[in-house]
Amino acid sequence: MGITERREREREAVRRKILDAARELFATEGYDKVTMRAIADAIEYSPTTIYNHFEDKEDLVSCLCDSDFASLLGILKEQPPHSDPVEWIRQLGRAYAGFGLAYPNHYRFMFMTPAKFEDGHELSESGQRAFGLLLAAVQGAIASGQFQRGDALAMAQVLWASLHGVVALLVTYKPEQFPHGPAAPDLIDRVIESGLRGFIASPKEG
User: Fold this and answer.
1) Which letter does DSSP use for residue 80 in this model?
2) CB half-sphere exposure, 162, CA atoms < 13 A
3) Which of 28, 27, 52 is nearest to 36 (CA)?
């Protein structure tokens, strides 16, 4: 390995360390309370080191969002779209939930950290594409007659919102902290199926 390549790998390792520390602080402390100095202190680097990689807090947040949503998109695309659009929705839902449970800090930052988009940031391209997969599956379900006719975007938003709700609960509470008993082991699948039932076309519509 040459000197230039080694330095580039070292620089990327530092950048990754900064992003990981920032993600955890944003998820646990809240966006407003976290400063660039706090991120530097968390990894025992000088603030100057942080600014060598990111212009400011806004730039760091933008890069972090791009990175995390790209990871989610990659997981959603690991399997090719199912030929049955309703099964594809199930496939996407399980993959989405699996990402959230496997990477709770990523999920909290991406979907549960308020104020990070107050400066007018829009969802990253990867985030748009990730939701676009669900939207395409819903459109396919409508076109095939499996879903009732209606607003595909609204349907996709309902499915996402219900799934987000269960993932948010599972990354926030331990199973034994759920009221009146632990979380059902198949809670995610039940939520997915409940959402699908709300849109399945009746026989007369098919």
Assistant:
1) P
2) 19
3) 52
Residue 9 DSSP one-character state? H
125-129 contacts, C-beta under 8 A, 24 or more apart: 125/66, 126/66, 126/69, 126/70, 126/72, 126/73, 127/65, 127/69, 127/72, 127/73, 129/73
DSSP string, 123-140: PPHHHHHHHHHHHHHHHH
> In the predicted model, is pLDDT for residue 2 greater than 90?
no
Q: How far apart are CA 127 and CA 107, in angstroms?
A: 12
Q: Which domains does the chain have, with CATH numbers?
A: 1-54 (1.10.10.60), 57-197 (1.10.357.10)
**Where on the phi/psi map is residue 174: left (φ > 0), alpha (ψ -120 to 50), or beta?**
beta
- Entry pTM: 0.85
Task: Tell me the sheet residues that pair with 147.
Answer: 200
**Could you give the CA distance from residue 146 to residue 205 in angstroms, rounded to a whole number?**
9
The separation between the first and the last C-alpha atoms of the chain, rounded to the nearest angstrom, is 62
Q: What CA–CA distances, in Å, run from 111 to 34, 105, 177, 179?
A: 17, 10, 22, 23
Q: What is the pLDDT of residues 120-132, one digit of tens each?
A: 556 789 999 999 9
Contacts 24+ apart (CB under 8 A), 170-179: 170/97, 170/100, 170/101, 171/100, 171/101, 171/104, 171/107, 171/108, 171/112
Q: Please answer whether residues 138 and 156 qualify as being in contact, where contact means their C-beta atoms are separated by less than 8 angstroms.
A: yes
Quickly state the pLDDT bin for 206 (edges 50, 70, 90): very low
